């Protein structure tokens, strides 16, 4: 049960107090222990209760990070990295207290190589800042998880988002990392070559490790050329099944869609109401194509045929940027449209991911479950990956409402797992999904714990995330 | 120095003798200890001396693998997985003796899902067998390391090959694994969803771990639709620099070449002699395009423009399968053509990989080094990835010749590392590149060792590979 999992851990009061003293001395104004700073750094965009760190270091260099890690390691005090706080499963909470490392001042582009299509950045840069810096190079960083997250945070949670179907997830786009490990030293996980068979893939081990194995101090990313032309389109379908069939055919035919997003009827109703639109309130696919004038037109025509075959309405598409923005407006505002359905309620965004052959079934069963429980919960899916989100609107102050949501999330995850899916396609485990991870991977979690113990023997790195605290 | 690294490890004679008895009893005829079986299972296609296992189990199921691992774990005896023995850095050698697990009988396709574009196979199936089995589905598995390697072996060494530039390497194409771990239990690293943020990426940790962390018992792979049309082409350039410039422009423009291979002038001379062809004996790119009639033609035309701009000769290309086979004949036979330059000599195939902006420089410096040393050593590169192979022809029985080659390989690796490259793009570390791994990643190797110790505390899994034996 997701919410009940969030317990406070044991606090090492003596160690914390010692480290507070050390950091005050070393960092002066760049170390803050005031309530408002602490609250800002436990803020999560989730339903999970905030658990505040004891202090916040505003790091400006890898040396700062080393100094914090060394002090915390010596006194067994938790270290919690903080990007912009957009994680959804409590990743920045501090259940055992400790020190939050704020990366907002480590937001520089360190180098760019247009010939190699790669860039090295400090972890605090956000993806929008990065893309602004890249603009003159003709290159862009494609991963878009929705929020303007930091690159370090996206790396730590193995983020993906709308155009992962074309460009992959963070695991596919991080070439190399530097990381401060438990001994306070900085290591580099890989050289900058595009591929390597040199030893264990430490890069991928740190991508998605949610700050539990070390603190990321720089990220080398693959980049893509900005497409010459971007096309966008929208198509409504009579059922989720029909829409998913169109997705499967699109993927099978190898049409390189950049985005293919599924909004269910409830979500479309919310979008219409919020943005004063008049889309059919039916399951709808939003598509984006990246290429040249010719290939975008070709891909759009191919998809239109598929849509017709699957019983879809007319496929509206355009390669005009302004019209595309209009068509996609509903998708871009989906989250706020959903919240506006019931502004007085809390919103809980959860995600699962299944093989795409099971997506229609998983979404349909989930919709039936929502209806049966009388929940208000629009669904948005990154359909090309089999990944979907349910935004459950509920009253967080009403225990009965909370209990109902917890039971729903339990069923949603069991359903996805039974279909050979995963309890999270992109949000991570954090505090919210620890029990589902155990269900999903069983014995493999023992291996993960062994790795955690080996690399972080004092359990200082983001304790109480991914695994239940042994303490 | 590569060759001197290959030392025998300490042998646990008592344990080995006990395990031989246990396995004879359990496996009968499926356990062989005869000299010829042992020799076959230490055969490597490399310059490295063979180090024989003490016996070979022909596994037929994961339960067989568990039984072997349990016996070997109890008595601290090495376990060396064996696919087809095509690894190049001594990965199947048994420096401390022990048991080879032969996977040739575990070669079944366990399931296929055309809708999900994925398949689960036993590790002993070779890539050609797999593609034969897939033919009716319209799908194929794209990774092609040259040799008809087993999927298990390709997974273990993080193989890639000619079309990695389009389809990625094994790390990008393995969705999930089952693995027998040190306690003799089988775990699954991931569900079958196309992406996941659920805990540490154990899949990618095992991909490329060269049998040192556990024994792979099944592999779930991503598949691709067989392209409607395949185009092929060849283009000679006045210099390696000009050819590499064409590669960089191709990648920067986002032309989705399926293969872009560089053969140097020595290699082209070898190909002409071997296959009685009359290609210009100049640095030459071999290309392949996957798509439709239209896109293959479009991409070929785009590349032709780039080639002209970079000073290349006419770009010969065709979408006719037979003509394409003729154009590519030279590339396909490059290895044998090289060996035929001096059939009496030994051949040592080594690889490094650098950022593509440094490829021309790295190849040119290596050619100068070869010339200066009077070596015979054609170069073939997977240029789109910055990865290239040098096939050094030398007399393995002449210590002076061996020493010269070792010194050359040392310089080659230092050169690649200095250019932010890796000591191996696709062959792995095995026994041959342990010292270069240390040079390349330094402190990160300490983390790898920690992981190894945690997951294989008795050091039974392929000891003496990747890391020097502590024994």
From TrEMBL, chains A, B:
One example GO MF annotation: D-lactate dehydrogenase (NAD+) activity
Family annotation (PANTHER family): D-LACTATE DEHYDROGENASE (PTHR11748), D-LACTATE DEHYDROGENASE, MITOCHONDRIAL-RELATED (PTHR11748:SF111)
Family: Belongs to the FAD-binding oxidoreductase/transferase type 4 family.
Limits of the FAD-binding PCMH-type domain: 49-226
Catalytic EC class: oxidoreductase
Biological processes per GO annotation: lactate catabolic process
Cofactor needs: FAD
Protein name according to UniProt: D-lactate dehydrogenase (cytochrome)
Lineage: Bacteria, Pseudomonadati, Pseudomonadota, Alphaproteobacteria, Hyphomicrobiales
Organism per entry: Neorhizobium galegae bv. orientalis str. HAMBI 540
EC code: 1.1.2.4
Keywords per UniProt: FAD, Flavoprotein, Oxidoreductase, Transit peptide
């Amino acid at each position: 049960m997701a919410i009940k999992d969030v317990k406070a851990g044991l606090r090492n009061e003596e160690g914390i107090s010692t480290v507070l003293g050390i950091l005050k001395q070393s960092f002066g104004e760049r170390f803050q222990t005031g309530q408002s700073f602490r609250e800002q750094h436990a803020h999560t965009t989730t339903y999970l209760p905030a658990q505040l760190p004891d202090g916040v270091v505003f790091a400006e260099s890898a040396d700062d990070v080393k100094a914090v890690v060394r002090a915390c390691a010596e006194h067994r005090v938790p270290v919690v990295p903080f990007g912009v706080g957009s994680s959804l499963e409590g990743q920045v909470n501090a259940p055992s207290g400790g020190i939050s490392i704020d990366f907002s001042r480590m937001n520089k582009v360190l180098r760019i190589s247009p010939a190699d299509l790669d860039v090295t950045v400090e972890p605090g840069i956000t993806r929008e800042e990065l893309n602004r810096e890249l603009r003159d190079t003709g290159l862009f960083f494609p991963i878009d998880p929705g929020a303007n997250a930091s690159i370090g945070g996206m790396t730590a949670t193995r983020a993906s988002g709308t155009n992962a179907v074309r460009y992959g997830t963070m695991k596919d786009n991080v070439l190399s990392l530097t990381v401060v490990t438990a001994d306070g030293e900085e290591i580099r996980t890989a050289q900058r070559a595009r591929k390597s068979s040199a030893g264990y893939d430490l890069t991928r081990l740190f991508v998605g490790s949610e700050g539990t194995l070390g603190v990321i101090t720089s990220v080398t990313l693959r980049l893509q050329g900005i497409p010459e032309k971007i096309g966008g389109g929208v198509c409504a379908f009579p059922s989720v099944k029909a829409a998913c069939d169109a997705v499967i055919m699109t993927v099978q035919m190898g049409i390189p869609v950049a985005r293919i997003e599924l909004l269910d009827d409830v979500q479309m109703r919310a979008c219409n109401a919020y943005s004063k639109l008049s889309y059919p309130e039916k399951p709808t696919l939003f598509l984006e194509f990246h290429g040249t004038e010719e290939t975008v037109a070709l891909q759009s025509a191919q998809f239109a045929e598929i849509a017709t075959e699957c019983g879809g309405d007319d496929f509206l598409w355009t390669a005009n940027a302004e019209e595309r923005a209009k068509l996609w407006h509903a998708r871009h505002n989906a989250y706020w449209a959903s919240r506006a359905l019931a502004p007085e309620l809390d919103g809980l965004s959860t995600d699962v991911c299944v093989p795409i052959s099971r997506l229609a079934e998983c979404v349909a069963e989930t919709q039936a479950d929502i209806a049966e429980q009388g929940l208000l919960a629009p669904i948005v899916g990154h359909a090309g990956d089999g990944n979907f989100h349910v935004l459950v609107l509920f009253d967080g102050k009403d225990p009965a409402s909370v209990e109902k949501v917890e039971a729903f999330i339990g069923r949603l995850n069991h359903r996805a797992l039974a279909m050979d899916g995963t309890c999270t396609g992109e949000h991570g485990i954090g505090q919210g999904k620890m029990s589902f991870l155990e269900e999903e991977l069983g014995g493999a979690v023992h291996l993960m714990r062994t790795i955690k113990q080996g690399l972080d023997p004092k359990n200082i790195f983001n304790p109480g995330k991914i695994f239940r605290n042994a303490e």
